């Protein structure tokens, strides 16, 4: 029955997309309408016309609400209950990042940046052009809430810390340059992910990363046992200086990409695939055995690559000291990729930010949205496994 229902839903979505130029907007509208209905069912303890002992109220029709998005205006029907208690966070949560995008586009429009392209976008999103006062009001509301998020105290300890950076185009003093967006994600002892910080820097350097990490510690970051990042020299140095007690894992995905620099352009064989398989081993002994076999097999054909791997691969195997169930999550920075993809999708609309503050505003708004979703989801990792793993290691050491 479920398969038939899913197939029917898929067919309906496909029909909407193919039959209407506004198909995507209609699909999103339908999904959001379903979310509103599900929220009301949960609030009342029963669905429409359902008689259950858990029911705590009754529906009382709908009222119309327009939600402005990047794909146009969505006309939604918001359910009401007789007692007037029902409320939804859907609009506020969704529109926080939308307002950040609108504010940035509007700011560009007022400053005369790509006016021909920006004005139609802002008018499509909001239905009108912007005055300086309206932009100021939007920014003020956003900046206050985003500042509170960025400066919140970190009360609980975080066993795992994942660090990464991406670059965005920003106009400063009339010159377009790339600026780094530094991001930190932590996993607490409840196994939940949190975005701990998002900051802008002129570039990735030891001093910028050090300031970033010192800022985290000033807000209460503590208990970090394991850090994952790429091998940027400034970042690695800052980790060693600010969090010397933590083990460091070099992202194996970045490592495999770096390996391409030591291969001929046309290498067409299984060399890198076999190297990647080493990261699926259960423990360090298995990984070292596979590595020895790999070096023996490929050292004759690719001596530069094998020499480099032999010197540097140990940095990428630190994750093997963790519980096996945690390996796939902490041998790379991939858990940040979905957030980076969403940032990339939104910032692509802007292309060049009028200043670093507008860039930070949009990225932080996306971080808040993602962080709220993470906090409401099931725990990301079972940290009881880490506790048991540490106890076993202590007994073996004794």
Structural write-up:
Keywords: DNA recombination, DNA-binding, Transposable element, Transposition. Pfam families: Transposase_mut. This is Mutator family transposase. InterPro entries: Transposase_mutator (IPR001207). One of its GO terms (molecular function) is transposase activity. By secondary structure, the protein is an alpha/beta fold. The chain has 3 domains: 2-88, no CATH class; 94-148, no CATH class; 154-387. The chain contains 15 helices and 8 strands. Strands 3, 4, 5, 6, 7 and 8 form a 6-stranded mixed β-sheet that branches. It has a two-stranded antiparallel sheet with strand order 1-2. A hairpin with a 2-residue loop joins strand 1 (59-69) and strand 2. The longest helix has 22 residues, at 23-44.
Please provide a brief summary of the model.
The chain has helices at 2-19, 23-44, 90-110, 115-126, 132-150, 206-218, 233-242, 252-259, 271-277, 284-298, 303-312, 327-330, 337-350, 356-376, 384-397, and strands spanning 59-69, 72-81, 158-172, 175-188, 193-201, 226-229, 247-250, 352-353.
């Amino acid at each position: 029955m479920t398969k038939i229902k899913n197939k029917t839903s898929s067919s309906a979505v496909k029909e909407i997309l193919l039959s209407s130029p506004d198909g995507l907007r209609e699909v999103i509208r339908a999904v959001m309408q379903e979310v509103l209905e599900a929220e009301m069912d949960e609030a009342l303890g029963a669905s429409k016309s359902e008689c259950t002992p858990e029911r705590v109220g009754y529906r009382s029709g709908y009222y119309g609400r327009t939600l402005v998005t990047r794909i146009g205006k969505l006309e939604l029907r918001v359910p009401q209950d007789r007692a007037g208690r029902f409320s939804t966070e859907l609009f506020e949560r969704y529109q926080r990042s939308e307002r950040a995008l609108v504010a940035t586009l509007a700011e560009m429009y007022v400053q005369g940046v790509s006016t021909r392209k920006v004005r139609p976008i802002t008018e499509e999103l909001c239905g009108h052009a912007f005055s300086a006062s309206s932009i100021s009001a939007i920014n003020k509301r956003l900046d206050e809430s985003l500042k509170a998020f960025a400066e919140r105290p970190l009360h609980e300890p975080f066993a795992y810390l994942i660090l990464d950076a991406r670059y965005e185009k920003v106009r400063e003093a009339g010159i377009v340059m790339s600026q780094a967006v530094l991001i930190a994600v932590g996993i607490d002892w409840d196994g939940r992910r949190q975005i701990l910080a998002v900051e802008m820097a002129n570039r990735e350097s030891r001093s910028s990363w050090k300031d970033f990490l010192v800022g985290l510690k000033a807000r209460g970051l503590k208990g970090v046992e394991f850090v994952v990042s790429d091998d940027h020299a400034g970042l690695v140095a800052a980790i060693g200086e600010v969090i010397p007690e933590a083990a460091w894992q070099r992202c194996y995905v970045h490592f495999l990409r770096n390996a391409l620099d030591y291969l001929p352009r046309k290498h067409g064989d299984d060399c890198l695939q076999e190297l990647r398989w080493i990261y699926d081993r259960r423990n360090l002994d298995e990984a070292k055995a596979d590595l020895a076999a790999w070096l023996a097999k490929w050292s004759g054909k690719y001596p530069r690559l094998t020499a480099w791997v032999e010197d540097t691969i140990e940095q990428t195997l630190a994750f093997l000291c963790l519980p096996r169930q945690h390996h796939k999550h902490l041998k790379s920075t991939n858990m940040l990729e979905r957030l980076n993809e969403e940032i990339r999708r939104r910032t692509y609309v802007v292309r060049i930010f009028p200043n670093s503050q507008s860039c930070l505003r949009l990225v932080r708004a996306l971080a808040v949205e993602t962080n709220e979703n993470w906090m409401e989801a099931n725990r990301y990792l079972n940290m009881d496994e880490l506790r048991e793993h540490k106890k076993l290691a202590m007994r073996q050491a004794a």
